[in-house]
Amino acid sequence: MKLKSSWVFAVGLVGALVLYLVVRSLITAGEAGKAEAKPAAGVDALPTVQVIDVPETQHPHAVVIRGRTEAARAVVVRSETAGVVAATPTTEGAFVRPGQVLCRLAVDARKATLDQARAALRSRQLQHQAATELAAKGYRSETQVLQEKANLDAAAAAVRQAEIALEQVNIRAPFAGVFDRREAEVGTYLAPGQPCGTMIELDPLLIVGDVPETEAAKLNIGAPATAKLVSGQTLSGQIRYVARDADPQTRTYRVEIAARNPGNAARSGLSAEVRLGAGVGPAHRVPVSALVLDAAGRQGVRYVTPDGRVGFSPVRVLEETPEGLWVAGLSGPARVITVGHSYVGEGQKVKVALAR
């Protein structure tokens, strides 16, 4: 039996309506499920960083500067009398002992003058002895004896003066050191005050440099210091001087370290990297890879705060060791980010995993 067309149309309309309702309910349920899943997806989306727990430790602090070596003393040795240089027994660059002859002047008439003074002294001694004996017998007055004694003293002084004049022909080293440069050759006429040469003292050796005004207050006389010279040598010593008045141009303070230099092995004028002891204070040892730069260009480390957010602290490198860097600037125990610090920012919440 054939159905009427109106019934077919009605059945189709009802079927379409039922299908629409079913599909709509399925779509609504799917959207609700997605909405409920959003919070969980947000938690999973937090970036993960690896951290290490770094305790705060007391560690020696140091001020690092560029410096140079200098002779502890440099003296131009000059002639005390006039004369022609007769000999130069010490070669340039030689190590000399105190009193060693550097230049010798011609003796000229100085030896004859000394002989004459000694002869006059012997004569005065005899006259004084005779006057004393005659005075004991009543043939000389006390005044005459005193006059002879005065003449004897004057003769002795003349001998001493002639001996000094003769000794002054030897221009000697005033201290142990290196005869660095000779100014006079054989045949050179030296007037009083003219130079024979230059002496320098290299043991102890000075290492000098300039400390920024922000670091000068941290240094104390007697504090330890080490210097790595450009020649590869390393010297150890103590701070002996820190200037109280800054250089008006650079606003820095001169510092001097006295260091032993056995055998004068290190030379004057060498560049050096100098580490000056500045006491002991809190520090943290972090991996080299933990150092980053913030938006302002400051060097520091990123760490995770107790509430799981990223923090940043500027640090100053105190010492570099094979195990890592000793830095100052962090406070208390810190969870330093070692992996992922380049992809997170300050205040950002992160997931934490301990570094392996």
UniProtKB/TrEMBL annotation:
It holds the Pfam family Beta-barrel_RND_2. Residues 209-278 form the CusB-like beta-barrel domain. Belongs to the membrane fusion protein (MFP) (TC 8.A.1) family. Gene3D superfamilies: 2.40.30.170, 2.40.420.20, 2.40.50.100, Helix hairpin bin. This is Efflux RND transporter periplasmic adaptor subunit. PANTHER family: BLR2860 PROTEIN (PTHR30469:SF29), MULTIDRUG RESISTANCE PROTEIN MDTA (PTHR30469). It comes from the Bacteria.
